[in-house]
TrEMBL record:
It comes from the Eukaryota. PANTHER family: F-BOX/RNI SUPERFAMILY PROTEIN-RELATED, F-BOX_LRR-REPEAT PROTEIN 13-LIKE. This is FBD-like protein. Gene3D superfamilies: Ribonuclease Inhibitor. It comes from Artemisia annua (Sweet wormwood). It holds the Pfam family LRR_At5g56370. InterPro entries: F-box-like_dom_sf (IPR036047), F-box_AtFBL13-like (IPR053781), F-box_dom (IPR001810), FBD (IPR006566), FBL13/AtMIF1-like (IPR050232), LRR_dom_sf (IPR032675), LRR_FXL15/At3g58940/PEG3-like (IPR055411). Residues 10-63 form the F-box domain.
Length: 429
């Protein structure tokens, strides 16, 4: 009986279907995909089958080399549909004629996802009515506003829009937004907020909204949100605005990350507008709210106080009083105004009936922190998990705290205490 052995020199990768090779090469930056042309004659033009064109100026030796490469890629591209066209030029000034040509070429190839970072941008006429675009990201990499789009937009399939501009959103961003009739996700970043104009968002299809203003003059304007299908809302930076929530019936997740809050009454009104949320994350807000009892969050299941949020223990328990259905509490490295523990006069309903998970990160081992955690252990009757991350850096201290918590009375017989620190890595009991 003779056995014929199959040759071990078969190049299985090269013999894969072009459709599969195209998918593989499209997963990497286009510059690296193009380098496969040196493998063999068979591979010389395989990279031109890519459906993703992803080019960043940084790996190239000079801006002109990068521009020449973009020209070559678009000239040789063999696909009839570009899934992703990403050009990242940071704050470098590319000739407007070049950028216009590249975007026009991508549109002629039925681009679906367009991601452009630039210092100068002039859009081709074909862009304003592009029917294939479903996702768009535009970032102005300079502190000089150059966009002034006069032509009305009509992007009938655009669902995701991420736009970062320097200032004056009414000149560009809002014109673009109004031309997206099926928009579902919007991220708008305004580098410098100095106008008094009201911002009005009436987008019935919108599900996800993120608004960011890193720098803001002390100007109080109005932000009107009429977004009946909104699921998640993220707000960060510095805002000097009165938020008017006209229609928020579907709101699930809210995240606020403020570098500064200059007007407490505006912040209070903002919190009142999102009381229907199921998840709330508060981060880095330099604001003191002396009384949180006026707030009611009847649907809230998940609450986070993240790094730098100024707190006191009274405020935390007032907040818990307003969240009768709360199940998860996450506290990360709080900035305590008064690191002094005072036991609350009454026990919030959620601690008795609903709270199942507590995570306390970056515990410094202060006496007030330990008293808070002991109180929660002794009163949370349905608690399943208490996770504590220590940040003292002292092995002996962390070991002592570990032993102390294991001896604490637990109101819930099913509660598991998990520890993370230098002395014991990760442990649970």
């Amino acid at each position: 009986m003779s056995i014929v052995m199959e040759s071990q020199d078969v190049d299985r990768l090269s013999n894969m279907p072009d459709e599969v090779l195209s998918e593989v090469l499209s997963l990497m930056p286009t510059k690296f995909a193009a380098r496969t042309s040196i493998l063999s004659k068979k591979w010389r033009y395989k990279w031109t089958l890519v459906t993703n064109i992803d080019i960043d100026v940084h790996p190239f030796h000079g801006l002109q080399n990068c521009c020449n490469f973009v020209d070559r890629v678009l000239d040789l591209c063999q696909t009839t549909e570009i899934k992703l066209f990403r050009l990242r030029f940071s704050n470098l000034w590319v000739q407007k004629s070049s950028m216009t040509k590249w975007i026009n070429d991508a549109i002629s190839l039925n681009v679906r996802d367009l991601d452009i970072q630039f210092a100068l941008l002039e859009l081709p006429v074909s862009f304003f009515t592009c029917k294939t675009l479903t996702k768009l990201r535009i970032e102005n990499g300079s502190d000089f506003e150059v966009m002034d789009w006069q032509t009305p937009f009509n992007l009938p399939c655009l669902k995701t829009l991420d736009i970062a501009i320097f200032s004056d959103p009414s000149l560009n961003a809002f014109r673009l937004i109004r031309g997206c009739p099926v928009l579902e996700s919007l991220s708008l970043k305004i580098t410098w907020r100095g106008d008094e104009e009201d911002y009005i968002f009436r987008i019935p299809t919108l599900k996800h909204l993120k608004l960011s203003v890193p720098k803001c003059a002390s100007i109080i304007n109005k932000v009107v949100l009429n977004v009946p299908n909104l699921d998640s809302f993220c707000l960060d930076g510095t805002w000097c605005s009165l938020f008017v929530m006209e229609d928020f019936p579907s709101l699930v997740s809210v995240s606020f990350s403020f570098s500064e809050v200059r007007f407490v009454h505006l912040y209070v009104e903002l919190l009142k507008g999102i009381t229907g949320a199921k998840s709330l994350s508060l981060d880095r807000a330099s604001v003191r709210l002396p009384d949180a009892s006026f707030l009611k969050f009847p649907n809230l299941k998940h609450l986070e106080f993240k790094s730098g949020y100024r707190l006191n223990w009274l405020f935390i328990f007032q907040f818990l009083e307003s969240c009768s259905e709360l199940e998860q509490l996450f506290i990360q490295k709080p900035d305590m105004e008064q690191p002094c523990w005072t036991e609350p006069h009454s026990l919030p309903t959620c601690i008795l009936n609903n709270l199942t998970t507590i995570k306390y990160e970056n515990c410094m081992g202060r006496e007030d922190e330990l008293q808070f955690l002991e109180y929660m252990l002794g009163n949370a009757q349905v608690l399943k998990t208490l996770a504590i991350t220590f940040n003292s850096g002292l092995v002996e201290e962390e070991t002592r705290l570990y032993a102390k918590f294991l001896k604490c009375p637990r109101a819930s017989r099913y509660c598991e205490i998990r520890f993370l620190g230098k002395s014991f890595g990760s442990a649970s009991r």
